[in-house]
Each structure stands twice: as structure tokens, then as C-alpha cells.
From TrEMBL:
The keyword Membrane applies. It is found in: Cell membrane. Keywords: Cell membrane, Membrane, Transmembrane, Transmembrane helix. The chain crosses the membrane at residues 12-30, 37-55, 75-93, 100-118, 130-149, 161-180, 231-249, 261-279, 285-309, 321-343. Its main location: membrane. It is a multi-pass membrane protein. This is YeiH family protein. InterPro entries: UPF0324_pro, UPF0324_YeiH-like. It comes from Marinobacterium weihaiense. The keyword Transmembrane applies. Belongs to the UPF0324 family.
Amino acid sequence: MTTLPRFNPTPLLTGLTLTLGLSLTALALVQLPLPGIGVLGPLTLAMLLGILAGHFAGERLEQRSEAGLQFSRHYLLRAGIILYGFRISLADLQAAGLNALLIDLVIVIGILASAAWVGTRWLKLDARTAVLIGAGSAICGAAAVLASAPTIRARQQAVPVAIATVVLFGSAAMLLYPWLFAQEWVQVLFAQGDAAFGRLVGATTHEVAQVTAVAATLPMEAAHTAVVTKLMRVMLLVPVLLVLSQLFARDEAAGEQPRKLPVPWFALVFMLLPLINSFDLLPSAILNLLHQLDQLCLAMAMAALGFATRLSAIRAAGWKPMALGALLFVLLLIGGTAMTLLLG
């Protein structure tokens, strides 16, 4: 009689405990008044703590944790992306207006196309790394990088490199926009109203958290428009993932048969949640709990990713990813301003 293999939960629980501890530490640290911590945000801080832990951990701990780390990188990442949809409602999208959607569309398409073209033709980066940097800059920062990586089957070591560009230039935008809003010539340029400047902030700043930080320094109308415009950009993550899954369907290796990449079903579920959220079926206490669970899932995925990342791989990437991130930052600022003034 054949006996079934016994399931050993220890590797899974060890890895999950490790990523949970790192993510909770990151979430606690961002609440402290420490210089620079607020700029990083909990997700990036969780990844950095993971890199630090992975650097000092022994090979035995890494092997014992692998099942839980893989679970965090795969399943908790997708759960976090899905739960992100509870942050958006149809009323939010309607409030921002069609102009904000058009600006977001142009920005997302333009930045992704520029990243792919400049990254591969000029900087000689591999296409997947260039697209990851473009997705992080064009859509919603680290969350977009994490969602895009499995869709296009990017190298694991390319993910922290792409996220590093998001952190650097998203932080630059977070510091730049409040200063710009205080300038008299900017007030003249955006004389059509504070909402126009809010659309610029929401359409061009990398992370949702960074947009929120900028919004806290703006008048109410500009702040609300900035956040909603940003959430509309987040919604564009789904069609972008579907397109990318088709564009990268053919293997780069010569002689191999073309194959389709897996459809990002988690992204489709994410897109349905704003519809559900619009009916106000869940009380605010439950929604707040889901928002916290969402952040925890994404932080655990980032910690697991960081644990498997080696600093030598980031150094080996060189200056080219940062150069691409800098170029995209300039394009976001100039192109976003032009589109906002044109469609505002």
C-alpha cells in the first residue's frame, strides 16, 4: 500500500514568520519621527530590511525559509494587489473627470514607450528591466514593479533595481512639488485653478504614498484631485499588465516556439473591486482593516523579495537604470505639465 508523503509546514511557517517580522518592523519604523524614514515608506523599508537580513542570514536559515519566502513573493503579492482595489471607488473616478483620465492615459503610454525605447536602444538594458522601470515610473511605483515582474517573467534581481529608481525619483518629486506650488510663476501658469496642479501631481508622482505626502501640503481641492488622479493611474495597471503579457509572449531565445505568458488574473480581480466598493457594502472599519491587510501583504512580499536579493546584483546593474529613471522623471515633469495645461 502506497503511503502519501507527509506535509511538513515548518519551512512554510519559518519563511512566513520571517517576512511577517520584517514587515511589521518596517510598518512600526515608519511611524517614528526618524529622518528619511517617511520618504522611503513601509514597502521600500520592508525590502531594505529583507536585503539586510538576507545578507547576514546563514545558508541554513535561507533553505529552511524558502517555502515561506516563495509563498510571500507569489501569493501574498497577488493578494496585496487585489486588496489595493478597495482604495478606489467609481465616485472617486467620476470626481476627477475625463481630463484626468486622458492625462493619465497619455502619461502611462508615453512613459512606458519611452522606457522601452530609450532603455533598450540607447542604454542597452534588457527589455524586461527597462519595462519594469517604466511601469514603476508610469503607474504606481513599487506596486507596479511587483505586479509587472511575474507577468513579463523578469529576472528577480531586476526588481529591486527598478524599485530603487522609483524611490529616488519619486522622493525627488515629493520634495519638488510643494516647493513649486509656492512659486509665484507656477501660480500664474496654473491660473485655471488648484485642481489643475493637483492633476499634475497625481499624474506624475510615482507612489500613492508620495502623492498623499504632497497632497498634505496643498489646498483641499488640489489635494483631493491629486489623490484621485493617482488612483485612476493605478486602475490603468490592469490593461497595462494584459498588454505586457501579450508583448512578452514570445521568448527571446532564438529557435524556441512562441508561448503565451500567464494572464494576470489577480489584476482582473483588482479591477472589479472598485465596482464593489462603490456600493458601500462594507463599513468603514472593515475597509480600514482591509487597507491595513493590503499593506501588510505587500510589505511581506517586499521583505521576501529583499531577502533573496544581493547588494552585489544591484551594484552590478550599474548607472544605466538610474539614468533611465532620471530621464523618465524629467519626461514626467515636462510632459505632465504640458498635458495638464492642454487638457486642464
